[in-house]
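lol ok so funny story. i was supposed to be doing the assay writeup but got distracted and ended up predicting the structure for this chain instead. priorities right. anyway since i did it might as well share w the group, maybe its usefull for someone
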Amino acid sequence: MSRGKPSQPELPPTSAIDSPLNHAFDNWFAYPVRVQPHHTDYAGVVWHGTYIAWMEEARIECLRSIGIEYADLVDLGCDLQVVELSLRYHRAIPLSTAVLVKTRMADVTGVRINWDYAIVSTDEQQLYTTAKVTLVALDRQRGKIMRQLPASVKDALAKISTLHK
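and the output, tada:
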C-alpha cells in the first residue's frame, strides 16, 4: 500500500479547447471587455456564466463586422441556436481587468457552424479561458433545423471563413 498522496485524476486533453497561445491570433476577431462589478461573483472574480455572455457578444459583433446583423437573420426567419458548448477556465479574471474575447468561425460541417474562442489579456500573453461553440441554423417559424442557410448568410459565412482563418 502506497503511503504517498493519492494520485489526482487528470482530464484527457480536449482538442476543442486547447490553448491557442501555442499559435498566433492572426485573423481572429477581437472584442474588448473590462470586468465590471456585475460580471463578478462574491470573490471579486468573473462569474463563470459571464464568459458565455461575452462569447455571444463577440460572435454577434464578429458577424456584424462582415455585414450580418442578427436582427436581419431573425427577419429572414433564421436563428442560430447553440447545440454544443465546451469551456476550459485557465485562470480567474479579477474585477477591473481589461481582456480581449477572441473568436473565429472554425468551420462549417453540414448544418453545424463551429466557433473557437479564447479570452486573453490585452497584450495576449495571459490566457484566461478557451472555448468552442457549435451552432445550427433554426427555422424560427417551424422550429426545425434548416438544412440550408439563406444564400446571403451562406455568402457572408464564406467571407468570414477567409477573413478570420
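The first strand starts at residue 29 and ends at 34. Residues 82 and 135 are 4 Å apart (CA to CA).
back to the writeup now i swear
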